[in-house]
Amino acid sequence: MGKIWVEVCLISARGLKRTSSFLKLQWFAVGWIDPENKYCTKIDASGNANPVWKTKFSTIVDPSDDETKFRDLALHVEVYSREPIFLRQSLLGSATVVLKEFFDKYDAKSDVPKPVEEVGSFQIRKRNSNKPLGFVDVSIRVSEEREEAGSSSIGMNIVELQAHKIFHSLVFCFARV
């Protein structure tokens, strides 16, 4: 198996628990497969418990680098709330999506690999807790490495992705101040 293109869309969250009854909380999420490359969604300022982000990012993974590491790859999503006045943010919880299932489905079609795409809802939990705090909706697509940067079905080419990543890194840094 050659290099694999993994496309992720952090679509939305549902049923998030509000920690403040006075303020309309703002919500954002941070997602990553490689902790060196994290992606931040835009901030949903609607104040309701069902924020919508539709943030997309892509990465290439190489199964030949380290088979054990490859099989343990996962998508990590952390959901944060932010107060609109003081801009204090706090981690609501996180969700982890093990990618092995997606890679296995992609590899099962080994003669002529066809893309595997699924949309799912994953429970958001605090670390070391079984109490669900809502759901995050994610789309994951696994396909062969792209030859053309603009051929992504999710609709972002590499230049857009880099600009998107830089912009949202700045937003995330601003939100942390």
Automatic annotation (TrEMBL):
GO terms (BP aspect): defense response
Organism whose genome encodes this protein: Phtheirospermum japonicum
Domain C2 residue range list: 1-114
PROSITE patterns assigned: C2
InterPro entries: C2_dom, C2_domain_sf, C2_SRC2/BAP
Cross-referenced Pfam families: C2 (PF00168)
Name this polypeptide is given: Bon1-associated protein 2
